[in-house]
């Protein structure tokens, strides 16, 4: 049996050996000065370096390093001004780190102000605020409300678009619906007309401000006799332009060149004595009447299909595009016949 005195003696020996081991493993500088808390000044400086500096500590450190001999009243004034700048800088830096890209760009725009560029402080302030990446100043071309309104009014004019009459020919959802308006010509021609009337915006801005209810007419929207004739004439003119017989594929320019005035009722309906027998100018030097030509034409054809449970046979008619082959004399005759029967509504 071990007595109580022996147990106490063994315990004291173990504690003394542990203290000796700890003292050997952690060497200390005997000559290092100590503080009231028992830490050496080296340990205290290391802790201060590791600890994040606050706006107040930055302010005191700046004063002690740069103006240590300043008097107390002046020191308090300087301290107040520097502290305000440090607090603002720390707040902006924290806000920059927590916000998204758009909010960060707002802060970068502040750094790109005229006052900062005047005193060449953009780099220093960017570093102090922790801004990442180059700070660029982008000049955006803002679309004014006046220009956008003028473009919308231009598109809604009767000489540029035509209003549809169908109850279901609308654009939009729910209660926010607008009646469709079809363009009477291409956007490029409308833009040329807009510029000639004094417009100063670019084509991209002109196209971007087009009202959403102004659209191009599709084939399903052109399924009328007049539109089919107009479309077939456009196909003939396109082929004549391709083989070099006429100089333009624009129907407005082509038909306007053969009449006195496109605004005259008599001229457009061949009642004018001066221009009723005029034909568009043609260049026939490199082509003969027997030259083979191929053009596109919309033709109405019958289609038969089965429908329903009883497989009832139904016949319908649709316009389809087909390639037509013929001689130049045939194409010329059809072209001149179409130009003499096109009313003013197609111009």
Can you offer a commentary on this structure?
- With 347 residues, this protein is of the alpha+beta class.
- It has three domains: 50-129, no CATH class; 145-217, no CATH class; 221-346, no CATH class.
- 47% of the residues lie in helices and 14% in strands.
- It is built from 14 helices and seven strands.
- The chain has helices at 4-25, 41-50, 55-66, 72-98, 101-111, 114-118, 122-129, 145-155, 187-196, 203-208, 225-242, 251-256, 265-268, 328-340; strands spanning 161-163, 170-173, 176-179, 181-183, 214-215, 292-307, 312-327.
- The protein has a three-stranded mixed sheet, with no helix packed on it. The chain has a two-stranded antiparallel sheet with strand order 2-3.
- Strand 6 (292-307) and strand 7 (312-327) form a beta hairpin.
- Helix 3 (55-66) crosses helix 4 and helix 11 (225-242) packs across helix 14.
- It is elongated and about 110 Å long.
- Residues 1-56 are annotated as: Disordered.
- Residues 11-42 have a biased composition (Polar residues).
- This is (apollo) hypothetical protein.
- Residues 1-10, 43-55 have a biased composition (Basic and acidic residues).
Could you list some keywords that capture this structure?
about 350 residues, alpha+beta, 3 domains, 3-stranded mixed beta sheet, two-stranded antiparallel sheet, 14 helices, elongated
